[in-house]
Amino acid sequence: MLDNYRVILAHPGAKAFAAAGLLARLPISMFNISVILMVQLQYDSYAMAGRVAAVGTLVWAAQTVPTARLVDRIGQRRAMIPLTLVFVLGAVGAIVTAMSEGPEWLLWLTVAVASIQGPLGSLTRARWSHLLDTDRDIHTAFSLEGALDEVLFVSGPALATILATLVWPPLGVVVCLAGLVIGMAILLAQTGTEPEPRAGGSAGSLGLRLPAAVIAVSLVTVGIGAMFGAFDISVVAFADEAGRQTLSGIVIAIVSAGSLLGGLYYGSRHWHAPLWKRTVVTALLMTVGFGSLALAPNVWWLAGLGLLAGLTIAPTLTNADTVVQRVVRRDQITEGMAWLRIGMGVGVAFGAWLAGGLIETSGSRAGLGMSAAGAGLALVLVLASAGVLRRSTERGDAAGLPDAPPPSEREEAVEQPPTPPHV
């Protein structure tokens, strides 16, 4: 099962940038839940915690495409050093504001500044696309990245919860800060695997000429993000109502452990079913899994069902990443995937904000219902866009292969269709 991973990790520099990127992405798994816990513990309000987290997530989503274009245009090193300094400034300001119980508007401002982090989830994926030659290897690499993300989501929320509830409310934010700074320093030192800046300035940017398939999967990630945003804050509230708030991070970690296992298995196989069909199936299974969580009678059932639901997360996200990789050029991969992060960010913000209000008025089970609704929305959007995904990713010839190769494997660069993102 692990042979495919050994092959790609044998490339020079692969292990180094994969490990460094893992550490640098620590805020992806910890920052949101750390902010929720810090604000809830200091101000005793789930609604306020949801609002602050939502504002930060919206800013994070808004900055993703501009910073991704900047990375593609001038290179990872030149772009990410100042962006890392911006994150440090905002994170320190958020900690000082929360611990002095400052006004909510100042929390909004500082968390928003800390959310200008750059396209953290795309940096190593862009390096894989630069380093590897075949679509098969890139599928394995993206599955590995999805599994590594889940390593963070296994350890990050549990660590954040323990640090915030048992040691010091903002300690999770401090750990995010340290992880990003150290990981980014190591990653940016790996110049041998850094993709070259895009030739011709911004001329090769996707801009508003997004392929229809990228628009489709970006909308799907809105539903997935709503599922995530509602789930995090709902689990904290669910465990708190049961008198076991310290277990909330453990439950989130168990869900992520399921996603890790699902991602490793999914990436270890080369599937014969077309990509669009796999996307439909994994979205359906994810909806069933998270729907069952809303019916969990206690924390232990929530954890057990969460393990099963988690098996579907990484495969679904891997499919979304792979759709983008199939339809954009290699020098546009960071920007293309940034649109997925925008969809995810908007969904997380919406889910956290709405779930926080529902929890305040109706309890944690209403928040879990919101999480299930987010998964259901993702499924509806996948079904609605199945035709677009099929036309964009299937080969359409007599070669006997179900999927088209990415632009990097075609003889000529493929021009992107002039489709605006709101269509």
Automatic annotation (TrEMBL):
Region (Disordered): 393-423
TM helices/strands, residue ranges: 16-39, 79-99, 171-189, 210-239, 245-266, 275-293, 299-317, 338-356, 368-389
SUPFAM superfamilies (alphabetical): MFS general substrate transporter
Pfam families reported in the protein's UniProt record: MFS_1
Assigned keywords, A-Z: Membrane, Transmembrane, Transmembrane helix
The protein's name in its UniProt record: MFS transporter
Lineage of source species: Bacteria, Bacillati, Actinomycetota, Actinomycetes, Micrococcales
